[in-house]
Specification:
It is a single chain. Helix content is about 65%, strand content about 5%. The chain contains 4 helices and 2 strands. A two-stranded antiparallel sheet has the order 1-2. The protein is elongated, with a radius of gyration of 42 Å.
Amino acid sequence: MISYPAIPDANHYQLSQMAAIEDIFDSLPYYDDDLQKFPQLREKVDQELARELKKIDQSTLHAKVPPPIQLFTTDDHPLLKAELERARAGQPMPSIDTMRYQLPAPTSNPGSDEEWKEALDNARAQLQHQRIRQTNLALLQTYGANAWRINNYLFESTTKQFEKASEDLKQLTVEVNRERKNDQERLGKQLTSLETRWTELISNILQIEMANIALDAEIDRLNKKEAELADQL
């Protein structure tokens, strides 16, 4: 087994929430090709993996996966929290209240002073709302284009940073895999040589043991013959 360190992070990645990653111990996939040589082994491996996957609780995240982010956990944003819960539950968005854009007259005829006062306050509020909208439109027409360009520039700069970080990480991954392959191929030749040498030594030992057995049998035969000759004398 060969130990390789975890793939290093790109410059723009901050993995402060993750603990120190231990060394990864893997097999020698670039050297061990038994699965390619013996197809029946692949079927056995797939069956074993299928049995192991059934034992794994899919709802449990890996220990290195950070917990999900909880939004609006405090009472600072009750409206946003309620809207998030509505979207999570899949409930339809409530319809727009159009009463605020209408100018209803008093329902009674003739209307009371209180009803007319309420209708007048509503008309004044809507008039002020329209004035604010005109002011916002004027501000947007004056400054909106530049603000939009600046915002787009910031987004493009952030996108380029993430793209560069992604490319750096991919390059690091390729380099680690290339180094792993070179090491395994280099060490694989040594393993093959040692395995061949081991086979030769085992063969020599077996030959010596067989020669010893033959010698023991020959010695027994000679001893018996010597005993027979001794009896004859």
